[in-house]
Specification:
Order of helices and strands: HH
Structural class: mainly alpha
Number of strands: 0
Strand content: under 5%
Distance between the termini: 59 Å
Radius of gyration: 25 Å
Shape: elongated
Largest sheet: none
Helix content: over 70%
Amino acid sequence: MIGPLLRVAASAAAARSLRSAANDALNRALLTMGAAISIVIGAVFLTASAWSLIESRLDSAAASAIVGAFWGLLGLSYFVATRRRRT
């Protein structure tokens, strides 16, 4: 008589912990996606504002070259940093 009751209680506790873990994973995934989207939007708007500021001082091609060089150096430094972590 006690064996089936213990199984029911154990399965209820396991289901509760699974629901809690799934909820935590979903919240973490949504927060990560929100952070990524905000970083991308911020980068786009900051790039546009930097380009327009540089373009008001220089010509359009020079502004594009400066902004492109900045993002290129940033990407290069990212790949160098991740390469050092892997090796």
